[in-house]
Every structure is written in structure tokens, then in C-alpha cells.
Amino acid sequence: MAFHEISLTVNGSLEQVRVPSNLTLMRLLRESLALTGTKNGCSAGECGACTVLLNGEPVNSCMVLAVECDGAEVITVEGLASDGQLNPVQAAMMQAGGVQCGFCTPGMLISARALLDRNPDPGEDEISEALVGNLCRCTGYIRILESIKEAAKLQATRA
Amino acid sequence: MAHPITPKSSSPVGESKPRIDAREKVTGAALYADDIQFGNKLLYARIKRSPYPHALIKKIDVSRALALPGVKAVVTGQDFPGFIGLYLKDRHIFCRERVRYVGDPVAGVAAINPETAEKAVNLIDVEYEVLEPVFDPEFGASPQAPVLHPELGQYIVASFILPRPGSNISNHFKIRKGDVSSAWQKCSKVIERKYRIPHIQHVPIEPHVAIAKVEESGEATLWDSSQSPFAQRDLIAETLGIPQSKMRVIAPLVGGGFGGKAGVSMESLAVAIASKVRGYPVKLLLTREEEFFTAFVRQGLVATFKMGCDVDGKLLAMQNTFFWDGGAYTEYGVNITRAAGYSCTGPYEVPNVHTDSYCVYTNHPVGGPMRGFGMPEMHSGLEQCIDELAHEIGMDAVEFRRRNCLKGGSILPTGGRMHPTGLSECLEKAAEAIDWGRKAQPSAPNKRRGKGLALMWKAPAMPGNAGSSAWIELAEDGTLTLGVGCQDIGQGAFTVAAQMAAAAFGVPYESVRVATPVDTRYSPYEWQTVASRITWSTGNAIIAAAQDARRQVLNLVARAWGETTDDLDIVNGMVVSFKSEREIPVKDFAVAGLPKPDGNGWMGGPIIGRGNFIPADVTGLDPETGQGEHAVVHFTTGAQAIELEVDLDTGRIEILKGVAAFDVGKAINPELVKAQMEGGLIQGISSALFERLQLKDGVVQNASFVDYRIATSSDLPKSVQSIIVEVPQADGPWGARGIGEHSMVPTLPAIANAIYDAIGIRFEGPPFTAEKIYLAMLDAGIVK
């Protein structure tokens, strides 16, 4: 197995790591950097629980090799809040009751963040489309979709 | 029995407090079992599984696997002779002589990384003698079927489970009430129908994971995603021959359970392997593929219903036969078939009942508890038959249900009487919300619109002595720490527990913290987080613990002030006297006590309250008739109604509106109750429209999220309405009873009834896929 020295920025900190060729970004985050907020639901790019922002785009981190992330900027759920202030998507998810077991929550929040970065005022169809790759078995999605509408409003008032 | 007394003070009960765990869950700080870091001593386990549905193990050669560098242990069934199981001890941890499903564990490996473990598994050579399999429960129950468990008669079994040794029937539950055969003649109409409900899977987003470590001394610790840490402690310890006190289970937050993480399944594999590499933590994480065919699945059901009513629409008789496809082991599933048996009439009063509910061994994946515990499967056919019978006698289906549904005092199929219930109110409210009786125009010419409704009931299915306990401790800052052994699997158990503790003791909700994670070494005992029993059962234990702590506090202050406890109360963390109008914060003495009135020395001491609860009056049922006074603790009842459209061009169903109304006794946290109703409705819709484990020769063909589709954010009804009905439960905390499972029980038949209303077609079973609907419409000449 070949190893590679890479550096990447994760939640604002520069990380220099030595990774084997087959290591996924998900395992790098969870195992090497102990950022366990990113969840492993299927390791096959199907459930969305491991979604992170890679250079601003939402990706399933189980489908990205760590070695591809040399020089990249990664944001995980741990990087959404700043200085103790929750990101609007987090605050709204709490308030609107979008959380049950919480296992899909980190991926949902990242997909929601990516959506609001693209469009700060998305319509209902756009919201449900943006989350179609994030599976949830508890909530029935209703309050999650509601949370994202609330997040858009909250973000507008903060801005 | 002496029912627990619910305190008068009720705030913050009944308020939609924010979830106690929401902040840690939105920041990524929440810890799940797979998140715990064990350092570089961690070993990874993989399992060698049977490729055959039914075979004898002739020989296992592990030498090549053991020789692989990085492999620390290889174990087989020869290492672990004990049997394991909740109600019927019918399985070994690893197979010994025989394999009974594709995926049955044959050997286990622990290695320094997952890749090496996987490689080692492939180096294990197993010789099998393939045997004839059983895939159909009706055939399996027949004398012609090969017997899959010849040892059935020797298995240890709970007293209320009735296996038939020499056959594949691991439980036969009977109801014989009244006289069905003479009742048919009095019926104006009789219908008889057969339904097949396929296997489905729980699909928690968090796969099963267990990390086990066995010390040199033999003491074992298991960290896992678990609804049942105490049951796992008990059963795994017993099977491995270690004392329960030396088996510790630590259960962090659960990323979705739905019953699949109840009892014991893959967790025992991790402990067994770890016992052969002492001192090393060993992690077993199921792949998503394994999750679909080696974790519990929901049992399949083949059900026949015969029912008749008189000219006024009064139900006179039911004869129901259930063949449950229990799979390879039915250690837990046997009780599902019992629950379906004593609930066999649905929520209706029927004077003459004849029911046989058979749990049948097959060579399918292991059936186990799943949200509803047999009720969604059973109600699927039953609630369609109710509609059909109403149509047969020309009566509106809601009116038919109105006349026949259970009221307080109605006679149950087991002979006892129904407690007060809001079922009729749920029916009326659901019918009103869906605008029953009025047919709206389809949204397009190529669409047909329909409405359907279904009722349900469900009791917690558990041993009559399933217990709960709780403790309460006060800190110097006035915070109340609540110890419970129940688990938060997403339903909000810790939030509701904190609300109840706050209300019962007399502090604000925000002043309560729950001692987590659940740890069998420190947490108080809880049977299992299953059966929608936690709010009710743990709630009663919490009240008892709070009252114990209150008693200590009030006695102390009464002594200090020279007053009687009758004049004192605890309000918002302050002890107040209604007589002297004195007050003192609890935190001032919660740990350090108070000086004696004469100033010489101290009294009181750290306050710690304890409480427990056990259902006191569940009685057994006669094994021949299923009759008994008090079969279960209570029933939660409810109704759902659906409005949908069928697309004539594609067969696709679009759910327009879903309505749920359930009698929860008392909503401790109304928004969490509604969240359960919503989540259950969508899971019910998913099971009706999309879900089926495609089993071919015992092999699950669709073991991935791509091939096994569950509802996504794009599958929601346009409108969802959740209605809370509150007819109090006499022995419930503040009158509460459970709601977790019930919300997906009537969904499928409500959808099936709406499909019939739209296109006049019924199906033998779900899922109601576009293809199936379209082909049926083609057959029926609705489309060309």
C-alpha cells in the first residue's frame, strides 16, 4: 500500500496527514482526526450521513479518497458553528424539531448549508430535492424541511 | 394493585419542551457507539457466514486464516456451546452443527484492521452438507416440511410460549371464544380473504455496531448501539457462563432502532470473539449489506381472515389464521405471534372468535421485533376486510367501525374488559379531518382519487413482570440528575423522562440532566426500550423516585422549621411553606444537610431518591382458549386516514393527505408525540409503497439502499395532520400511555382502502408499486 503526504484545511485548521491510497475522506475525518460528527451509514454513497462540504460542495465523504483532498478545504458538522454561535441551519433544526435519533442530522445540516449557500431563499421543492440524498428513518422529513425554511428566515434576519 | 400516584403538580408536563439532546446532535458532539475512540489496540472483527439457507456443517478449517499475519483470533461454534434467546433459547452465538439461513454466523475473526479481518474470513474453509430448505410458512407448518429445529423440545422457553416439538411451529397461540361455527349462520354477510405481507427491514441509518473487551479476569464490557443493554447483560452473560455482575453494557445514543436493536443479535458475536483475545477491544460493525440480511427483519405473514356481521353491521364472528414466517430463529419472534393472537380481532368487539397464530421456522433471515410488533402486518389485512364487509352490507366504512369499535368496557378477545379509550374520538376526528364522505375531483383527467381509513390497537407485548427503575440525585448547584436505564432511540425518551422528573420533584425542566450514557454498572435497571412502554413504565418509576427524594427533602425541612410536611411543597427548586411562608432553595441543603434546630450537629445528608415499577396485575392466558382476565397492561388506540391519487398512465400513487389521531392518554410533550405520529406515518407509507425484502432461495436480492428503497424527502404527502386524543390511562404517569410504534400500524390498510376507493382493486399484499398498480389496472380493463 502506497502512502501519501497531504495537507488540507478542515474546519479552518490546516492538517498535514500521511494517508494510505485507499483511505476515504470519511475514515480520515472519523478515525485520524477524530471528527466523529460525520457519520458512517452505508460506506457506499447511498445514505448521505457522511456528507461534508468539499471546497464548498456537498459530497459523500465515503466516496472520496483522502488523497484527492490534498489542498482542499473541508467543512464538517463540527465546523458549522462559529465562536459558540450556532449556524442558522443548526439553530433552526433544534427549534423546528428536525432532530430525532440524530444520526442523519450532520449530513442533513451540511446539505442544508450547501443549499442555502447556493440559494438563500429556496422554495419547498428545491429544499426537498436538495435533501433527497440524505436518508432519515425517524422524522418522516417533515420537520427537517420545516427547519430549513426556518433557517433561511433566520439567516436573513441575521444578515 | 396499588397504582402509582401521579403527583398533582404537573408543570412542565404537557409542554413541548425542547429536546434535551438537540444541541449535542446538531453540533456533531453527540456520541454514538462507533464514535468512541479505542486507540491502536482496537481489533476489527468480521464474520464468516453461511452461503446456504439450510445445511449441516461437516468441517471447518481455520488454519489458513490463523496463519495470516495480523489475525489475532479465529473462533467457531465449537468454542461456545451455550444457547441464547429472549423468549426461546433456540440459537447458538456461532452455528455448531447446522446453519439455517444465508448469513448465519459460522466463524469469527479478530484482526488488526478491517481488511485483514475480511481476508482471513475468506481463508476459512467450511464443508457443508446441503439440506432441503423451507421458505413458505404454510408449508413449513405442515407435517411434510423438513424439521429445522429437531431440538425444539429441549429448548428453554418462557411459560407463555407454546412450541410444538417435532414440527417447525415454535409457538401456537389460540383464541377460542364463543362459538364461531354456529355464529356464521346468524351472519347476514361473511367474507373470507387471504393476505401476504412481505418481510421488510428496520433500516436504521446507524448500522449495528458492538465493541467488546474481555479482561484477563473475565470481566466483560460491551459498548453498543442498543435498545436493550440490560437484557444483553443478562442473556450474553448467561450464555457465555459469566456472572451478570461481571458483564457491563455501555450504550451511548442509538442512531435509530425501530426494534432492530432490541434483544440480542450481533452483539453476542463481538463479546464471544473478544473473550478469545483478552485485553483487546474488538469492534464488529455491520456493513449496510449485512444490516439487511443478518440483523433482525420484520417477519413475513400469510393471514386468512373470515368475518361476518348481521344486517345491522354488527360483527358476530371472526376466524383468523396467521402463519408467521419467523425465519431461522424465533427466540424473540415467538412473542410477536402471541401478540398478534391476543390482538387478533383488531380494535373491535367480536363475540365469537377462533384464531390460530403460528410462529413457523423457515430458512429466511431471522424475524424479530419491529415497530408495531406484528400489528402493522396483522392490521394490513384485517382493516381491509372490515372495509369489504361494510361494503358487502352496503354500509359506510366509518359507520361500520363506529358501531363495532371498542369502547371502555367492551369485551376483549381474551375475555377481559377494555379500559377507557378514546378510539371512537380518534375515528371521528380522523374522518372529519379527511373530509370523509365527500369525493373531491382528481387533479387531472388521467388521475383517480380515493380516500381510505383504518383503525388500530396495540398493547405493550412483554413479560408481565417487565420492570423499570430510576434514581434522582441533587447537586450543590440545585441540579437534579436523573438516572434511568431506558434508551433514547430518537423518540425523545430522555427529554420526556426529564420533564416527568422535573414535574414530579418540583424543579424547572432546565434543571434536570439525565445520566448518560446508559451503563449497566451505574444506571438503574430497565427491561428494554421496546413496546412503546417507556413513557408509561419508566415514567412511573421516575415518579416513585421523585416522591422518595421529595419525602426526604420535606421531612428534613419540616424538622428544621418545626412544621409538618403537609404545609410544605417544592416549587421551582425552592422548598416553600404555605403556613409560615418561609422558603429555602433545595441546593442549600441537598448535599450538606441542615443544622439541627438546637444548633448542635447536622441532619439530612446527600439526597438520593429511588423508585421502581412493575406491572402488578397481568394474568396468564389459558393455553387452549387464550382467555384470561388481564392479558396485557393496556392498549393504545388510534386511526389514520389517507387521501391519494392513482396515475392512470403510470400506476404511480401520490399520497395527498395523511391524517393521524391517537389516544395517548396524556401527551407529556405534545410536539414529540406529533413527531412520532409523523415519522410513523411516513414509515408506514414507505412500507406500503416501496418496501419488500426480495428473497430468492433464501437470499436477499436487494440488500442496499439503491435496491431497497425507503421514503425520501421527495415522497411526502402535501398535507399531514396529527391529532392528539387524551383519555387518561388509570395507571399511567399523568395518564400517559405509549405512542412510538402505533403510528405506523394503520397506515398500510388505510392506503389499501384508499386505492380501492380510487380504482376498485385490492392486492394480496404490498408494496403497491407503480408497476403492480398499472398491471392490475390493465388486467381490470381500467386502462388499455
What does this structure look like?
The complex is a heterodimer of chains A (159) and B (784). In chain A, strands 2-1-5-3-4 form a 5-stranded mixed β-sheet, with helices on both faces. The model of chain A has no long low-confidence stretch (mean pLDDT 97). In chain A, 34% of the residues lie in helices and 17% in strands. Chain A is globular and about 45 Å long. Chain A has 159 residues and is α+β, with helices and mostly antiparallel strands. In chain A, strand 1 and strand 2 (13-20) form a beta hairpin. Chain A contains 5 helices and 5 strands, in the order ββαβββαααα. With 784 residues, chain B is an alpha+beta fold. Chain B has 3 domains: 33-131 and 208-285, Aldehyde Oxidoreductase, domain 3; 300-437 and 452-462 and 620-779, Aldehyde oxidase/xanthine dehydrogenase, molybdopterin binding domain (Aldehyde Oxidoreductase, domain 4, 2-Layer Sandwich); 466-613, Aldehyde Oxidoreductase, domain 4, CATH 3.30.365.10. Chain B has an 8-stranded mixed β-sheet. Chain B has a 5-stranded mixed β-sheet with strand order 9-17-16-15-10, with helices on both faces. Chain B is globular and about 95 Å long. The relative contact order of chain B is 0.13. Chains A and B meet through helix 2, helix 3, helix 4 and helix 5 of A and helix 1 and helix 15 of B.
In whole angstroms, the N-to-C terminal distance of chain A is 49 Å
Name of the CATH class of the largest domain in chain A: Alpha Beta
**What's the gyration radius of chain A in Å?**
16 Å
Largest sheet of chain A: 5 strands, mixed
> How much of the residues of chain B is beta strand, in percent?
15-25%
Number of helices of chain A: 5
**Mean pLDDT metric of chain B:** 97
Q: Which sequence of SSEs, written as H and E, runs from N to C of chain A?
A: EEHEEEHHHH
The strand count of chain B comes to 33
Q: Helical proportion of chain A?
A: 25-40%
Termini Cα gap of chain B? 65 Å
